[in-house]
Amino acid sequence: MTAPPDPSVFLDDAVSDETRTFNARLTALMAPMAEWWDVGADAMRAARRRGEGVFPAPQMSPRATTRRIAGSAGEIALRVIAPERPKGVYLHIHGGGWVFGAADMQDPMLERICDNTGQACVSVEYRLAPEHPYPAAPDDCETAALWLARNAKAEFGTEVLTIGGESAGAHLAAVTLLRLRDRHGIAPFVAANMVFGCFDLSMTPSQRHFGNQRLVLRTVDIERFTDAFLSGVADRRTPDISPLFAGLRGMPPALFTVGTSDALLDDSLFMHARWLAAGNKGGLAIYPGGAHGFTAFPLTIARAANARSDTFLAAAVDAAAARLAA
């Protein structure tokens, strides 16, 4: 039996002084920032690449290479950071509200996962909204996952596959798992690393009630991101859009990571419960005071969360390799 979350993690007293101080500074820093829907997605993407805002400019890894595969609308770039002899392959799907982010904007994180889990990290350069609304991003991620399922042995010398992502990336990871099961009848991934994902695009209570505190992600941000991604789609509870409403049997073991000061808190709480109710294995890691995106910042809770994710992935890879060798 999986134990329910400790209620104390949700109390104000559970938030460390470090996290509380950081969140206050972050809110103050973000308060005067322009809205992306006012300045335009392209202008905000360029600003993020320059390191303007709360996230630092991307650091490019000299270890990274690019592999290009055929997609339904042209080539899809896969950014690869790999050890000499990978134990497995981690299909990474970046976050950014389906509007921002890129496969080359989190190389240090991919290096860490590569070094700590022994896996090759393959990050998908999927198409972004609003220029390319649903189903462009899920289509690209599905294509990348299928390619990996068919070619990982030849490309990386291993058939052990894991998947994961942050925020919109966790959403797309869940959708990808469901598409592989329902459209292709396969379940090639042995673990899913779901980091503060958005699993209900019709809006959970925590999304609706978070309000206007500019702590990375507000209610209005979620509304704007989902509107850009869905571009007029009426039924937002379709499982291919909101995987919380899917039948979830046959999913791999998953770790759901979220902070208590995240507008997407309910998404992880609800998805974890439904994951277990469908007969799957799942862990829930809740970090007091963690804001959306907290794992990218120099915080004690971020180091703890990243270490737990790496340990989860490494254990899944080692267990799968042992089964194959038996």
Q: Mind explaining what this structure looks like?
A:
The two termini are 28 Å apart. With 326 residues, this protein is α/β, with parallel strands linked by helices. An 8-stranded mixed β-sheet has the order 1-2-4-3-5-6-7-8, sandwiched between helices. It has 10 helices and 8 strands.
Number of helices: 10
Strand content: 15-25%
Quote the average pLDDT: 96
Rg? 18 Å
Query: How far apart, in Å, are the first and last alpha carbons?
Result: 28 Å
* Biggest pleated sheet: 8 strands, mixed
Key features of this structure:
single chain, 40% helix, 326 residues, 8 strands, Rossmann fold, alpha/beta, 8-stranded mixed sheet, 18% strand
Write the layout of secondary structure elements.
Elements: H1 17-30, H2 36-39, H3 41-49, E1 65-71, E2 74-81, E3 88-93, H4 107-117, E4 119-124, H5 136-156, E5 161-166, H6 168-184, E6 189-195, H7 205-209, H8 219-230, E7 254-261, H9 265-277, E8 282-291, H10 300-325
Parallel strand pairs: 3-4, 3-5, 5-6, 6-7, 7-8
Antiparallel strand pairs: 1-2, 2-4
